[in-house]
Amino acid sequence: MARPGVPRAPAAGWKRHIVRQLRQRDRMQKALFLELVPAYNHLLEQAELLDKFSKKLQTEPKDVTLATHQGPWEEDSGPDSNQFPSLATLRVKWNEEEEGLRLVCGEMAYQVVEKSAALGALESQLEEQQSRLAALDSRVGELQEAREQRAAQVREQRAQNAAQRAAYEALRARAGLQEAALRRRQEEARDLLERLVQRKARAAAERNLRNERRERAKQAQVSQELKKAAKRTVSICESPNTIQGDGFRERPETLALAAEPESLENEACEKWKRPFRSASATSLTLSHCVDVVKGFLDFKKRRGHSIGGAPEQRYQSIPVCVAARLPTWAQDVLDAHLSEVNAVCFGPDSSLLATGGADCLIHLWNVVGGRLEANQTLKGAGGSITSVDFDPSGSQVLAATYNQAAQLWKVGEAQSKETLSGHKDKVTAAKFKLTRHQAVTGSRDRTVKEWDLDRAYCSRTINVLSYCNDVVCGNHIIISGHNDQKIRFWDSRGPRCIQVIPVQGRVTSLSLSHDQLHLLSCSRDNTLKVIDLRVSNIRQVFRADGFKCSSDWTKAVFSPDRSYALAGSGDGALYIWNADTGKLEGSLQGPHCTAVNAVAWCYSGSHVASVDQGRKIALWH
């Protein structure tokens, strides 16, 4: 017996459940026998009544025999003869009641059989329910055990979640500290970059100042020596190399400076050959020499934009293709990169090809016998390559990247030589200028920058009102195509934009003809336009059914002889137009199953290269 105040064991619950089930079974069976018990009681009453009648009938025949031996006169002698029924009447009544009781007994027996069958069915159902109840009880026990296990797992999981939450909070706090440290490092890097740029600018200014001082000192020294020489009497003989005087000897530096201009040298030689010895004549001649030298120095000053500035060094001109050959079929098709290929460019000798892609690599290919052979892989780019260009000598490769910088490689060296950093957004174009050691880049930060490659220094920044998608360079001009559907022209010797030509659609690429008289632009309105730079007007507009400019970096090019315009379409085909008539020469369907991003035409005019968004490069012949 349980003590008061002490909680019962958990096992008492199933006992209560069994008691409830037994009570419910008693109620169900009692309800089934409620009809059977009254009928059975009635049957017992009828049986007792029948038993009484049977006993009575067993005693009555003796009385009847006595009555039959009496005479007829004895029938009416008794005073109570009319009070009892006759024997025949009783017998009939007894037979009737017996028949009725027999029928009732039959019905009762039939009902007993039916009730017994129903009772057997109910007992079988009860057994089934009891077995089912036992199975359910075992199932309940299993579920309770599983519930306890799940509860234990939930508790463990909650403990793990709490530990992970604490670890997450710690990592979040650490990440916040690292992010703050990263921002500080970035600010320090920007400050260091600005200081480096300022230091380079100061170094360049100091160098220019030293050169200016040196040139001024040299000029002053030459002027003094020439003035001294002009004051002395000099005898000039027939030989131009012999100068006699009172101990006067011409310094080699003076002779070198005096001999630089060809006109000055000719004039001096003619005067030296004259057979006169007058001091006044000699003085005039030397004074004139001083004036000429001063004028020559002033000319050098104006040409170099600073005193002592060196003349511009230009690349040797690339041979011009007389007649380009139209491509007809793809000679070689390769998977050039691991992902999308964005840029392609031929070297000036047409035997070297460069491709740049979204895998941050530049591959150099040799064009041998109409096939592409891997030459070298240039590494070190910090982002996807958007533009590739060879310098006119073919010794350097310049690439624009999504890492807010342009990078310079030397052909033959796998690692980057210089990084031109200073843009604040993706660099979309990078091109060499015709002047040595100079380049131009365009970016989505709405700027165009000129670079001094010797010092990796930005010499000029041009702010524009729109994204720059491509740039090309002429002799003294920079042309940029923008997202606001305009082409802008910049004089590299002046500070401002000199001309703006509007076009329909965002400009995706620019191509300058070899004679620098025509400009080809590709735009998102699915057209190519030829601009005559002599009159600054659109001369031709190229369209074609099926041609689609699929992206903001789709590139179109002139053929080397400017006879044709070539562009790749979003359906993987190459379209060629006649640049003079504007007629579509044809479309090349080939290995490209995705949009063509860029095309290139070699300088010899014999091959065309195309790259697409599906990693492929095709060489056409």
From TrEMBL:
Location within or outside the cell: Cytoplasm, Cytosol
Keywords: Coiled coil, Cytoplasm, Protein transport, Repeat, Transport, WD repeat
Hydrolase recorded as keyword: no
Coiled-coil positions: 112-222
Domain Autophagy-related protein, residue spans: 17-208
Spans of repeat WD: 334-375, 378-419, 420-461, 558-587
Record-linked InterPro entries: ATG16, Autophagy-rel_prot_16_dom, WD40/YVTN_repeat-like_dom_sf, WD40_PAC1, WD40_repeat_CS, WD40_repeat_dom_sf, WD40_rpt
PROSITE patterns: WD_REPEATS_1, WD_REPEATS_2, WD_REPEATS_REGION
Protein family: Belongs to the WD repeat ATG16 family.
Protein name listed in UniProt: Protein Atg16l2
Organism per entry: Carlito syrichta
